[in-house]
Amino acid sequence: MSEYIVVTSDIFTKYRAPRPNYLDTPERIHTVLKLLKMYPPLVKRLLFLEPKPVDEAEVLRVHTQQYLNQIKRALRSGSSWSLGEVYVSSELYEASLHVLGAGKLCADLVAEGKLRVGFVVARPPSHRAGKSRAGRYCLFNAVAYTAKYLLDVHEFKKVAILDLDLHHGDGTQEIFYDTSSVLFISIHEYSEFSTFTSGWIDELGRGDGEGFTINIPLPPGTAGDVYLHQLNTIVKPVLKQYKPEVLLVSMGFDTHLSDPSGDFLLSVSDYTQIATFLRDVVDESVERKCCIVFLEGGYNELALARGLVNMVSVLTGGREFFREERRSTSQVVRNFVKSTMRNLRKKLRNWWSL
Ligand SMILES: [Zn+2]
How far is the CA of 111 from the centre of ligand 1 (A)? Predict the structure, then answer.
């Protein structure tokens, strides 16, 4: 059995919100799979698996009964409806149960020592769903569920979640804010002009969880050079000290320079660099030498597909397929980041050697 697993299903392409500005479309998944399958030597290294949906009791590992009841009541009424920024339908509900199932499948393979890298190629995304609320396009939180399932069922003691989506993983943060069993690190865009309400540097966890939530907010105009610098100078040393048993990654490609939802300037080649970083950090700092990458955002389909194919290739021992010039971050943005990160490091030194 290959240790490089892709978990995906047709069910992730079976719903479409009847709104022109709803960026989470079935084409996101279609484009990724179509591009991936154009490279037979890469496909040969991968094992494609179909997830099963989890049952409702499993959902309650990370969400409240009240929230689940609210969703089911609305679904029974028969009409599609909106919950925050999620256009909920029975098809989206089914797909969401399957995304959790994909995480569960990968978690079981990790516990059996049969997975080195897992890719959950699915929609809807999930990192913004909290205990009792939906987030932008996210109904249930699959990355949080997978971490909780590993702790509860396979008795893991330390799981790390690295959130590399453009948006703050506020749902994941909320779910693990009080525990040291899950280290949560998020790099995301901060803008005075957006609806940015969480992900500040002084959100560091609570009680037993103090020091185990780390937020790295970066301004619009951040390119791959500054982004990679944070990975190497903050994320890497913290993971080395935490030594998780497994690394889960919420991977968003909405950090791409062409993405309609943000103002970061990462190029497709930066995703190659991120994959190289992940490969090295898993090798050096993750006890079981494995990681599971969950697709979160990314709304320019081609950039998403090229970025993900580069990552799949590099994380499975292959080469970069798609090159795109790497941009530089302006001096103004660099100076801003420098002063924010100086403050963050000062806070983090209460728990970590940096
Ligand atoms: Zn996002």
Answer: 29
